[in-house]
C-alpha cells in the first residue's frame, strides 16, 4: 500500500540527532524517539525536545505495533533519575516528558523509578506516559503521589483489536487507570492509533468511552509500521477525517483533542498542555 502524499515526511537530518546525542552525553539515557523509530524525531530533535525513556530499552511485552526492543530486560539503574535531571539541565528544558518500557518483571512494575525521576525533576513541568502497572493500585499511587503535571496512559487501539495488537494488556484496566488519575486531580491524558483494522464507527465509540473517564486530553494519530517486520496499516486516514475525530471529541467535553496523521502522544506535548491551560 503506497503512502499518500500527506504521509511523506523528510528523513531526519543526522546532525540534529547527533547534536542531541552529544548534549545528552550518556549512551545509558534512552529516548522513545529513537527506540520507537518515531517519524517526528527530526522535527523534535531540531528543537531540542525529546521524550526520555526510563527503565532500560527492552520491553517485557510484545505489542505488535511497537518498535521498541523486546526480550530480557536490563537491571534498573539507580542513578537514572539524576542522569535525567542532568540531561534536562543541559537541554534547557522546562517541560519534560518521560515514558518507559513496560517492566512486568519488577515487583512494582517500575512505578518507584517513575516517582524518583519526577522528584529529581522538581521545579520542572513533568508529563509522564506510564504503562498499566498490571492494574496495581499501589504502583499507580506512587506515581500520583510524586505529583507530575500530567499522567498519560495510552489505550493504543480499539478493544476488539487488543488480542492481536496489544495482547498482554486489558482495555478495561486501562480505562480504570485513567479514572483513578482523574479522580486524583492530576491532568489525565490518553491516546490511540488508527489504521490497525478499526472503522470510523469504532473510533467514535472509543472516543466516547475515553470521555466517560473524565480525562482532559486525547491524541489520535496514524499507525505507521516502524519496520517491514511490523503489521502493515489496514488503511490511511485522511487529515479531514482526523478533524472529524477532533471535533467530535471536543463536542463531548474533552478539553483538548489533538488528531492528525503524525500526531503522537508526546508530540508537541508542551504546546498541547499550554492550549489546555489557556
TrEMBL record:
Entry note: cofactor: Binds 2 [4Fe-4S] clusters per subunit. One cluster is coordinated with 3 cysteines and an exchangeable S-adenosyl-L-methionine.
Molecular function GO labels: 4 iron, 4 sulfur cluster binding; lipoate synthase activity; metal ion binding
Entry's Gene Ontology cellular component terms: cytoplasm
Keyword set includes Transferase: yes
Keyword hit for ATP-binding: no
Protein's GO biological process: protein lipoylation
Binding site for [4Fe-4S] cluster 1: 33, 38, 44, 266
Superkingdom of this protein's organism: Bacteria
InterPro entries associated with the record: Aldolase_TIM, Elp3/MiaA/NifB-like_rSAM, Lipoyl_synth, rSAM, rSAM_sf
Binding site for [4Fe-4S] cluster 2: 59, 63, 66
Pathway membership, UniProt: Protein modification; protein lipoylation via endogenous pathway; protein N(6)-(lipoyl)lysine from octanoyl-[acyl-carrier-protein]: step 2/2
Pfam families: Radical_SAM
UniProtKB keywords: 4Fe-4S, Cytoplasm, Iron, Iron-sulfur, Metal-binding, S-adenosyl-L-methionine, Transferase
Localization annotation: Cytoplasm
Cofactor annotation: [4Fe-4S] cluster
EC number, UniProt record: 2.8.1.8
Reaction(s) catalysed (UniProt annotation): [[Fe-S] cluster scaffold protein carrying a second [4Fe-4S](2+) cluster] + N(6)-octanoyl-L-lysyl-[protein] + 2 oxidized [2Fe-2S]-[ferredoxin] + 2 S-adenosyl-L-methionine + 4 H(+) = [[Fe-S] cluster scaffold protein] + N(6)-[(R)-dihydrolipoyl]-L-lysyl-[protein] + 4 Fe(3+) + 2 hydrogen sulfide + 2 5'-deoxyadenosine + 2 L-methionine + 2 reduced [2Fe-2S]-[ferredoxin]
Positions of the Radical SAM core domain: 45-255
NCBIfam families: lipA, PRK05481.1, PRK12928.1
Annotated PANTHER family: LIPOYL SYNTHASE, LIPOYL SYNTHASE, MITOCHONDRIAL
Family the entry assigns: Belongs to the radical SAM superfamily. Lipoyl synthase family.
Record protein name field: Lipoyl synthase
Organism: candidate division WOR-1 bacterium RIFOXYC2_FULL_46_14
Lineage per the UniProt record: Bacteria, Bacillati, Saganbacteria
Amino acid at each position: 500500500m503506497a503512502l499518500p502524499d500527506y504521509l511523506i515526511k523528510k528523513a531526519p537530518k543526522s546532525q540534529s540527532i547527533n547534536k542531541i546525542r552529544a548534549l545528552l552525553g550518556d549512551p545509558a539515557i534512552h529516548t522513545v524517539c529513537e527506540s520507537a523509530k518515531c517519524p517526528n524525531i527530526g522535527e523534535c530533535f531540531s528543537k531540542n525536545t525529546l521524550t526520555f525513556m526510563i527503565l532500560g530499552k527492552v520491553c517485557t511485552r510484545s505489542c505488535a505495533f511497537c518498535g521498541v526492543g523486546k526480550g530480557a530486560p536490563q537491571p534498573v539503574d539507580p542513578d537514572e533519575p539524576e542522569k535525567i535531571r542532568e540531561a534536562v539541565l543541559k537541554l534547557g528544558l522546562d517541560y519534560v516528558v518521560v515514558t518507559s518500557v513496560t517492566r512486568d518483571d519488577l515487583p512494582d512494575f517500575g512505578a518507584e523509578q517513575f516517582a524518583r525521576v519526577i522528584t529529581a525533576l522538581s521545579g520542572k513541568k513533568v508529563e509522564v506516559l506510564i504503562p498499566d502497572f498490571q492494574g496495581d493500585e499501589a504502583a499507580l499511587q506512587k506515581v500520583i503521589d510524586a505529583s507530575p503535571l500530567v499522567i498519560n496512559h495510552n489505550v493504543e487501539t480499539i478493544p476488539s483489536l487488543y488480542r492481536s495488537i496489544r495482547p498482554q494488556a486489558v482495555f478495561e484496566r486501562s480505562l480504570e487507570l485513567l479514572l483513578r488519575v482523574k479522580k486524583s486531580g492530576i491532568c489525565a491524558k490518553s491516546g490511540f492509533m488508527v489504521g490497525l483494522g478499526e472503522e470510523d464507527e469504532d473510533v467514535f465509540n472509543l472516543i466516547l468511552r475515553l470521555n466517560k473517564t473524565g480525562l482532559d486530553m486525547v491524541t489520535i494519530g496514524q499507525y505507521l509500521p516502524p519496520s517491514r517486520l511490523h503489521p502493515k496499516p489496514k488503511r490511511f486516514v485522511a487529515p479531514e477525517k482526523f478533524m472529524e475525530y477532533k471535533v467530535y471529541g471536543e463536542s463531548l467535553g474533552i478539553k483538548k483533542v489533538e488528531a492528525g496523521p503524525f500526531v503522537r502522544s508526546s508530540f508537541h506535548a508542551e504546546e498541547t498542555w499550554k492550549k489546555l491551560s489557556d
